[in-house]
Amino acid sequence: xxxxxxxxxxxxxxxxxxxxxxxxxxxxxxxxxxxxxxxxxxxxxxxxxxxxxxxxxxxxxxxxxxxxxxxxxxxxxxxxxxxxxxxxxxxxxxxxxxxxxxxxxxxxxxxxxxxxxxxxxxxxxxxxxxxxxxxxxxxxxxxxxxxxxxxxxxxxxxxxxxxxxxxxxxxxxxxxxxxxxxxxxxxxxxxxxxxxxxxxxxxxxxxxxxxxxxxxxxxxxxxxxxxxxxxxxxxxxxxxxxxxxxxxxxxxxxxxxxxxxxxxxxxxxxxxxxxxxxxxxxxxxxxxxxxxxxxxxxxxxxxxxxxxxxxxxxxxxxxxxxxxxxxxxxxxxxxxxxxxxxxxxxxxxxxxxxxxxxxxxxxxxxxxxxxxxxxxxxxxxxxxxxxxxxxxxxxxxxxxxxxxxxxxxxxxxxxxxxxxxxxxxxxxxxxxxxxxxxxxxxxxxxxxxxxxxxxxxxxxxxxxxxxxxxxxxxxxxxxxxxxxxxxxxxxxxxxxxxxxxxxxxxxxxxxxxxxxxxxxxxxxxxxxxxxxxxxxxxxxxxxxxxxxxxxxxxxxxxxxxxxxxxxxxxxxxxxxxxxxxxxxxxxxxxxxxxxxxxxxxxxxxxxxxxxxxxxxxxxxxxxxxxxxxxxxxxxxxxxxxxxxxxxxxxxxxxxxxxxxxxxxxxxxxxxxxxxxxxxxxxxxxxxxxxxxxxxxxxxxxxxxxxxxxxxxxxxxxxxxxxxxxxxxxxxxxxxxxxxxxxxxxxxxxxxxxxxxxxxxxxxxxxxxxxxxxxxxxxxxxxxxxxxxxxxxxxxxxxxxxxxxxxxxxxxxxxxxxxxxx
Length: 821
Description:
Structural class: alpha+beta
Membrane topology: Multi-pass membrane protein
Protein name: V-type proton ATPase subunit a
GO molecular function: ATPase binding; proton-transporting ATPase activity, rotational mechanism
InterPro entries: V-ATPase_116kDa_su, V-type_ATPase_116kDa_su_euka
Distance between the termini: 49 Å
Transmembrane segments: 423-446, 467-485, 548-566, 586-603, 636-655, 759-780
Radius of gyration: 43 Å
Largest sheet: 5 strands, antiparallel
Strand content: 5-15%
């Protein structure tokens, strides 16, 4: 025990020791003090104004200003992104500016950009309208030209009919007949409206016009050759130029209203060809002028955005820091009488000298006459959990924290997860060919670490990059596991020497039926390659991997129980050692530890004993004769002893601890039911052993609740010992599935394709094999093995000792603010 106590503590084994401190900061040095603490990033402030709303805090106006500046910076960022300006890392050469000056600059830039955007939108709208007008002039002019040519052909017949017709006939004739002659159209008041409309609306638009005019209209349409920008929606659309011929003022009003409802833009087109040509020239001239103006405006706007982009990162960091400082100051309690701020928070013990040094520097730099008071206090609540990690250990710590953050000073599973997680993954994924592929991917990510860490990655790529060192160890252990299994893309190799087996005859005709003959010492490392393809390959590998899974599971579960002992010893809980650790070790090893011993003895002796039969009849007939299943002398009495110990361990876990806790609690408050009568309410508050306080403590202990909790914990462990051991058989199942899948893809795809003489078939077969290897074996199987290894650590391993009910240490740090952004 003294050896364990004198061992040097590991950095990751337990979280950093924390202390609760109080700061009394003069108002004139508060800003600098919080700023320096933010650069240090080792103090987690407590919110002393949690009952106040954000608008009732001291520095609410400064927070609003920073929020407004953040909004402007986001506006600039969106404008830069829309303009397609590539943001580059610029060396910041300009000197730092004050927050007030920055606020003025941001306001000026915002007004300038808003004005530019407004003017640009107006110019673009005018440009789009003129472009539509040009399209309408082209298409509508052709409509009028076709009608004029048609009128010349039928002029004599139409003139004769019009002279012989009376006034009543002219008024009731159809519009189509009226449109046949221009002279009659002029006399009868036939007009036309031309414009442009979205193609998707043209059918309904024509139908609505027909119904509104009761058929007294002529509708011509022509598609526009290219997509044009709508002046209103500013979106590219396929449009149709239309021309509606009608008669009467009422019809004109209806048609204009329908055009407005369908967002059809109407443009006047003169009937005279000369005027059309003149108007077209004017439109082309104005379009050219607008294009030059728009280009100049875009260049000027891009120039302004580029100048903003040059300092955008610097400004964003500055505003983010200012907002973080004032948010933190709002968590401090403002003492009006003493003109100081009172803050409290958690910090690691090793950081206290650094914090004091930063506070002294803040006092000196702010020219304050009064120093900042640094005071260590006692806290009622549990401290936060803080582990100092690096790039390598951070990913493994995140795997553990995803289950639950460790309780303060609790044994950290991440110390062991660094090795056990990739090892159990490799047991399921053992193939040194696939492991080399994973290793290449991990090395590429690590080689590009400095470049990728500065880029904004997608969710999948960010997760992959964050776990690059996990992937590295998974690959290394997979190569090791593949060498043990002797599988390279499911192909065995004689890497470590010759096989220990040979054929019975020269042509090896009976190798897959009768079997091979052993003629030399066993294969030095891993599985003998001659097992591949033999008639006993599958039974041998099943037996090996299943027993190996049980051994690994029992070892890891025992490690979890040993860590529960280290936790109990660290917290000074002798009850947990006597009534949890000892009976749990006895129960687990009396059953499954004994099974592991039988497996090892069977491997060493080569016995043919049936371990299923041994374990079943250990419960059904403990005193029965083992017969051929006896592996060593004294096995029968040992089994009876172990079974009795397992039965005794269950009540040992269940009953003593709750009753001992009740006895200790009763003895603690025995004879102290009544306290000294206080003379005032203040006396009651000041007496820690007052009757009211003792009664509150006495009511905190609920025996039934403690007993039920212990009963649940005991039943969970007993049942979990069985189910968790069975759960480790997933190592065997996934390892077998991975090996068989690799074999199927190799034999039924690659070798089958290679047996053909056609080069195309070989290439197709190799492509299918490569695709299956990359996406099924290297992606899906990797993810599957990863998740199963994760489950074995979270459930089977960590539930033996890990509470995971703590909370993370989240200090005020400028670095973390930038990461969150």
